[in-house]
Give the backbone structure.
Amino acid sequence: MDGQTQALEERLEKSLRELVELVVALDRAKGIIQGVPHYSAIEQRGRELGRELSRRVQERHMGEILVHQAERVACPECGRRCKVEVSKRGVLSVDGLVGLQELEGYCPGCRRSFFPAAGAVGI
């Protein structure tokens, strides 16, 4: 493991510890967790936070893919080079609704929209 990877892992661990402290304090302040709660209530809060983190990681990873997008791609019907733009749509993941960004092209010749795969735009 190189130094940069190790530094990132240490930063992640520190951030997770801080996040846990923040969530526990916030849950108590909001009254979500009161007194001595049943363990299932604690477990439920952890699962909710985990799902929220998962959705945000999915959104971020998909957004990173689009950073390297081409401005024009071939229409799958006629092959004409068409401009692509980023559009956003909701996708239901196992952790809930995720707002994903994707590429959308429009071919004026074919008069149709299309959604190129990441490999089709050189990603």
Q: What stands out?
A: DSSP finds two helices and four strands in the chain. The chain has one domain: 3-121.
